[in-house]
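pipeline: protein-struct stage 2 | run 1193 | Mitochondrial transcription termination factor 2
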Amino acid sequence: VIQKLLGRPGPSRYLVCGFFFQSQDKYRAQATPLLLTRPRSVIVQEENPLAINALYDLSVDISKVRKLRGWVLRQSPVYVSETAALLRDMGAILCKPDQMEAQKKLWISVCTSQKDLVGIIEKFPASFFTSSSDHDNQKANIAYFQMLHLNKRIISKLMASAPQSFRRPIEQNEQMIQTLQKTYLDLGGKEDNMKIWLQKLLTQNPYVLLKLPDTLHDNVAFLRNAGFTGDELLRLLSKLKGFVTELNPESMRLTLSYSRETLGCTEAELRQIVLQCPALLYYSVPILADRFKGLLTAGVSMEQIMETSTVLELTTQIVQYRIQKLRSFGYDVCSDSLEVLNGTKKDFEMSYRKLRLRQERPLFNPVAPLRTKD
């Protein structure tokens, strides 16, 4: 792990070199910058044998370190053992060989290749280097998800991004999965499509497994009482990407009440707005108040917001920036559609580029021959 940190380009390499391998009088976390530049001294210093021996003991490829970050080997003192101890405490290195082998076999059963496993270890080391006491739970949970016919890619992603769900007893995951399945069917979902729906939900929000089934029950019951039909709730759950378990009835009640009063719409109209912009459910009243104020200050009407409610997903700062940029090319959001404001930064840049090209394009081609009647 130390070798990868030393040899990998990017911030992680500098983290070890700049934070843990610096002189004793500068070893203070509060005052130490993480990014240090390469020493500029033209005097060639001798390599520190203590540092080299310590790295050798950890099986680090010294030649690679010497090639990529050779100046590290010339520093004195260095803190190789301290860094190794920190990584050991995090579970990243120095695990018992038999434990490492058991984890490897376990992960290979859900990875498509060893290359994929290496990628997971690099991105999610804490998910791989885990306590041996969790091994039986991991094995049982893997078998359970395989029984659900989830593919390897989904299972490995769940293990990597939400390892806690695989370290706990299988009964807890079974209970949440069964609750999700029952909710899907009760809302009118088709049995044939349930596996795809479940896979998509777990991929979008792996942490849904860690939530309490009662939370899902309560939130669905609240939305039913708010007038949403089963089909609408199914669409809403899909659009919320599993984040329905992050909500609670009281916060939704406050948000919906404020939104209806501010927009001056009926309950039926509000439900359609929520279906168009499900994020409305989990924004707090202060956040919504700020976004409504920003749009109205820019000259946008309530009718426009109701027509394109997804604009409420954007922060006030982003909205102001995009409106100003559009106005520089003559696009007036007050009289035109707000749809151009929506989307990611990439989406907006594409829309903006089209508007700019439209404005810059000449009305006619001056070199083209004019068509006249004989």
